[in-house]
Design brief:
With about 500 residues, the chain is α+β, with helices and mostly antiparallel strands. It is built from 18 helices and eleven strands. Helices cover about 50% and strands about 10% of the residues. This is CRISPR-associated protein Cst1.
């Protein structure tokens, strides 16, 4: 069988022939097993993991073994050596990745095939540690990513020298790198309440694995990311609710780690709003365009679409960039934006907060107070704006500025249509109050521009403006021709 090739059958075909009963594989709640189960389904041409048959498993095992052995015997300059790096990051002590592995393909094939033998119907058996089915084989760290060795007795099932794993789950755990977004040193898998998104993620990655094995690391472009693949799948779902989780991990012998990022349930609703609204599309594309990064040689180091998609994910440990914060920082580049661009970015921020976080604050009165103070204050608008920027994200300092602005305007005989109680929302010290302050700053900057208050020069580089206009006219999250990036360790 060709590497990662699927049996010749239509996707979604229902088993019918004698001996083709399904039920040999279940996609469980374990994220690694689940990603592998979807990879098996894609490689076997089935629409669901639960439709995979024993014959399908045989075909997938043949492909997995052939690919692993070919990578294990490949030279370091060969394209398939890239796949060996992937396997080493997941199974560092396995038969095909061990430093002292034989270079005889026949020996390696026999050893790998033995891993996936059917469960013994008569010998000692236990419930599978992953799905609960009957299992007669026990595995440990060398074949199970992110599991301990069988020497960690306090974590093993009582009286068992490893974790019992049924044949379906064994195949799934080795199909894992096909269904995951892999790099030379880590892998990322997806969990989503919408199974169609999980399948699309697996389909993309199976195709990416094919390219990787044939082109090697140097043949992979760098204009996609697992976040971008997921966001495209979520947009295809339409305006429903669907939370996702990305699990990124490294399973080496020194410092294994796991990182978890999530999207909120309403992200598909936000994406549908952006897709169907011209100003929001413009705001999204402006954001993506200005997130693109190049090195000194002009080589792209960060692609805008992938970076923008990453902003929709929140890290479990809190160490992730926020879309709102990114828009806030861009808006302060006052000499970059036209009135249309600023309005589009501001609207993008407000709609994100409304759709994703369910918050729709009325900040018009507070923004008007600050804009009036900047426009009519005792110093130049630029100086007043600089003072506001210093206080913009600090609740206590912002409260002081609002009091000062209110008194200053009243002393000058100008109307003030807001009382301190009404600005409590943006100055109080509470969780996520900073988001209200970010939106307030966006609205203040928009008001100033609408009033013609000069706080920065308008962009006057025709070439840059033409490039920006070309970018913003493209559909959001448009598929790239070469979005199968291999990535560094």
């Amino acid at each position: 069988m060709d590497p990662v090739s699927a049996p010749d059958r239509a996707v979604g075909a229902v088993p019918s022939a004698a001996g083709e009963s399904a039920g040999v594989l279940t996609a469980t709640g374990h994220p690694l097993q689940r990603a592998g189960a979807w990879a098996v389904a894609v490689m076997a041409g089935r629409s669901e993991p639960e439709l995979v048959t024993a014959a399908d498993l045989d075909g997938v095992v043949e492909a997995v073994v052939a690919d692993a052995v070919a990578a294990a015997v490949a030279g370091k300059d060969a394209a398939r050596y890239a796949w060996w790096k992937v396997l080493y990051a997941l199974y560092p002590n396995s038969k095909v990745t061990h430093a002292k592995r034989p270079k005889d393909a026949a020996v390696l094939t026999a050893g790998m095939t033995e891993l996936f033998v059917p469960d013994d119907a008569e010998g000692e058996r236990w419930p599978c540690a992953l799905c609960g089915a009957v299992a007669s084989v026990v595995w440990a760290k060398s074949t199970l990513p992110m599991f301990d060795t069988n020497k960690a007795l306090n974590t093993l099932p009582p009286g068992v020298s490893g974790w019992p794993v049924c044949r379906g789950c064994r195949v799934a755990m080795w199909a894992l790198p096909y269904g995951a977004w892999v790099t030379a040193g880590s892998a990322t898998v997806l969990s989503c309440v919408q199974r169609q998104a999980e399948r699309e993620f697996a389909e993309h990655n199976v195709q990416r694995a094919k390219r990787m094995m044939h082109a090697g690391a140097s043949g992979m472009a760098a204009d996609a990311s697992p976040e971008l693949v997921v966001v495209r799948a979520l947009r295809a779902l339409g305006p429903g609710l669907a939370a996702t989780t990305l699990w990124s991990f490294k399973n080496d012998n020194q410092e294994p780690w796991v990182r978890v990022t999530r999207t909120r349930r309403a992200v598909p609703v936000f994406l549908a709003s952006v897709s169907g609204n011209a100003p929001l599309r413009r705001g999204w594309q402006l954001l993506a365009h200005h997130l693109k990064r190049e090195d000194a040689d002009g080589q792209v180091t960060a692609y805008g679409a992938a970076e923008a998609a990453r902003l929709l994910f929140e890290a479990e440990d809190g160490r992730s960039r926020s879309l709102l914060r990114q828009v806030y920082e861009l808006l302060w580049e006052t000499e970059r934006w036209t009135a249309e661009d600023r309005a589009a970015l501001t609207r993008l921020a407000f709609v994100y907060e409304k759709e994703v976080h369910g918050v729709e604050p009325d900040l018009s009165k507070v923004a008007t107070l600050i804009a009036d103070w900047i426009e009519h204050g005792s110093s130049s608008p630029r100086g007043q704006l600089a003072e506001y920027r210093k206080a913009a994200l600090n609740g206590y300092r912002l409260g002081e500025l609002l009091l000062e602005a209110s008194f200053r305007l009243k002393l000058d005989g100008r109307p003030v249509a807001i009382v301190p109680e009404e600005w409590r929302l943006v100055v109080q010290q509470r969780s996520r109050a900073w988001e209200q302050r970010v939106l307030l700053a966006a609205e203040v900057l928009r008001l100033l521009q609408d009033r013609g208050v000069e706080v920065g020069k308008q962009p006057d580089d025709p070439a840059e403006r033409e490039l920006t206009e070309q970018r913003v006219q493209q559909p959001i999250l448009a598929p790239e021709d070469h979005d199968f990036h291999f990535g560094a360790a």
